[in-house]
């Protein structure tokens, strides 16, 4: 029998998600930390378009400040 854990589980990592608006259908497409220029495909209209990458140092800084996830935990659960 699988029982749920006795205490809530804390995050063990994190990922930054950036949203890019499809130039064809205007749908927001989530992309996890794109560090290189790339072509993505809209999951609604199916068309491809190029995206601008995010700054790797900024993404690293945010992960570092959040302790890669655990520092973002609600203090009421610590």
Q: Rounded to an integer, what's the Rg over CA atoms?
A: 17 Å
Separation of termini? Answer: 28 Å
Determine the strand fraction and express it as a percent band.
15-25%
Give the spatial strand order of the biggest sheet.
Answer: 1-2
Largest sheet: 2 strands, antiparallel
Order of helices and strands: EEEEH
Helix share, percent: 10-25%
How many β-strands, per DSSP?
4
Report the principal-axis shape. extended
Q: Count the helices. How many? A: 1
Compute the average pLDDT: 92
Structural class: alpha+beta
Task: Extract low-pLDDT stretches.
Answer: none
Overview of this structure, please?
By secondary structure, this protein is α+β, with helices and mostly antiparallel strands. The chain has one helix at residues 56-65; strands spanning 17-21, 28-32, 38-41, 48-51. The chain has a domain at 17-70. The chain has a two-stranded antiparallel sheet with strand order 1-2. The chain starts with 16 loop residues before the first strand and ends in a 13-residue tail after the last helix.
Task: Write a brief structural summary.
Helices cover 13% and strands 23% of the residues. With 78 residues, the chain is α+β, with helices and mostly antiparallel strands. The chain has a domain at 17-70.
């Amino acid at each position: 029998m699988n029982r749920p854990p006795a205490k809530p589980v804390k995050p063990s990592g994190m990922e930054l998600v950036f949203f890019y608006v499809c130039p064809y259908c205007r749908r927001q497409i989530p992309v996890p930390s794109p560090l290189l220029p790339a072509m993505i495909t809209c999951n609604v209209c199916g068309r491809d378009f190029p995206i601008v990458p995010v700054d790797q140092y900024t993404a690293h800084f945010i992960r570092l400040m959040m302790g890669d996830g655990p520092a973002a935990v609600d203090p009421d659960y610590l």
